[in-house]
Design a protein that fits this description.
The protein has 364 residues and is of the alpha+beta class. It folds into three domains: 11-163, Immunoglobulin-like (Sandwich); 171-284, Distorted Sandwich (Coagulation Factor XIII, Chain A, domain 1); 287-363, no CATH class. It is 19% helix and 41% strand. It contains three helices and 22 strands. Strands 1, 4, 6, 7, 9, 11 and 14 form a seven-stranded mixed sheet that branches. Strands 2-3-5-10-8 form a five-stranded antiparallel sheet, with no helix packed on it. Strand 2 and strand 3 form a beta hairpin. Helix 1 (286-321) packs antiparallel against helix 2 (326-333). The longest helix is centred in the C-terminal third of the chain and has 36 residues, at 286-321. The radius of gyration is 34 Å and the shape is elongated. The two termini are 64 Å apart.
Length: 364
């Protein structure tokens, strides 16, 4: 069994689907994630592959570590075994404690064994197998006490086990929102933020869709969420971000988040469960609203002048029919009248406004 006194730091993105990880310098480890459903007393024989991608020989040391979520974006922080006592499986793993040397472009399989105790309780258990070019150190003080730190090249394969049985699978949507409530520019990009909290004792993989409807209730877009199968660890919150881009839009939109998670009963879980949340936002493009608004304003002004003109004309006609003296009618005749072109402009603007509103309300 590997000593638990020497460890190292690492922040890697948790559970994204890629099955290999190439470190920034010249090391690759695969798979980066081992995810299994197991039973008490079961023994797993697993392998990882470490590759030296550099042009010079490199020595690798292997260590075990617990890991925990760091932030909400899926990063894992490696910590001293036993730090995450409730969920640690490091003591179940047997792997070589001897360093290995790999030549340039050479790779090697490393075998290890995981022995699940007979009395292991149902739930999620986690650990990491780390390969590094030098022995690491443990941070002894400060807020991050217990975190593994180091300056060498290092990478890890994360191990996630779910022990079958009456596990607690429970989650909730802590937040479902858009980055902004109003969007004034076109083309536009709406960013959706979904924060899922795992209240249970086993990791979950919530996945589903965001369905976008316009103000008429018509579904205009469906966006997949967590297609890669990223995990949410127990007692943590995971943030998912999705975006919707379009060249044009107008009005109020409603977005509905529908997710499912859980393990089927025949695999030792409580069945598939669902999560739902809803939010709304507005698309009000200034490139469209300003011209239409100006056109409506001009239409109103011309319409008022139009009414004034016909009111004056009606008074004049009534006076003439009543036999009012011509001197008064001549005074009325001197009042300004609305040119015929105003009537034409009024009708044209009215038609343009109607067409614009039909386009915005029914075609966008």
């Amino acid at each position: 069994m590997l000593s638990k006194k020497i460890f190292l730091p690492l922040f890697i993105f948790l559970f994204l689907v890629p099955q290999t990880l190439i470190f920034a310098i010249a090391t690759r480890i695969s798979p980066v994630r081992i995810d299994r459903l197991v039973y008490p007393g079961q023994v797993l024989d697993e392998k990882i592959t470490v590759a030296n991608l550099s042009d010079s020989p490199t020595t690798y040391y292997f260590y075990l570590a617990d890991f925990r979520a760091s932030g909400e974006m899926g990063e894992a922080e490696l910590v001293v075994p036993g730090t995450e006592k409730e969920y640690s499986l490091v003591s179940w793993i047997k792997i070589t404690g001897e360093p290995i040397q790999l030549g340039p472009k050479e790779e090697k399989e490393i075998s290890f064994q995981i022995k699940i105790p007979q009395d292991a309780s149902p739930g999620g258990y986690y650990g990491a197998i780390v390969a590094a070019t030098t022995p690491p150190q443990v941070k002894e003080e400060g807020r991050e006490k217990g975190a593994i730190i180091g300056i060498a090249q290092q990478t890890a394969s994360l191990v996630l086990l779910q022990i079958a049985g009456p596990v607690e699978e429970k989650a909730m949507v802590r937040e479902f929102s858009t980055e902004k409530d109003l969007y004034f520019q076109i083309p536009f990009e709406v960013k959706f933020i979904s924060r899922i909290q795992n209240l249970g004792n086993v990791h979950i993989k919530p996945s589903g869709i965001i369905e976008i409807k316009n103000y008429l209730g018509k579904v205009i877009e469906t966006i997949p969420v967590n297609q890669d199968g990223a995990n949410v660890l127990p007692k943590t919150i995971r943030r998912f971000e999705n975006s919707w881009k379009k060249d044009i839009g107008f009005g109020k939109y409603t977005a509905s988040l529908t997710l499912t998670y859980g393990t089927p009963p025949d695999r030792g879980g409580q069945g598939i469960k669902s999560l739902y949340a809803q939010t709304s936002f507005w698309i009000l493009p200034l490139k469209i609203i300003l011209p239409v608004g100006i056109a409506i304003l001009i239409f109103v002004i011309i319409f008022i002048l139009f009414l004034k003109f016909y009111k004056q004309l009606a008074i004049k006609t009534a006076l003439e029919e009543a036999g009012i003296p011509s001197s008064l009618t001549r005074k009325l005749r001197k009042k300004p009248t609305l040119p015929l072109i105003f009537t034409f402009v009024l009708v044209l603007l009215g038609l343009l406004i109607i067409v614009a509103l039909i386009y915005l309300l029914f075609l966008v």
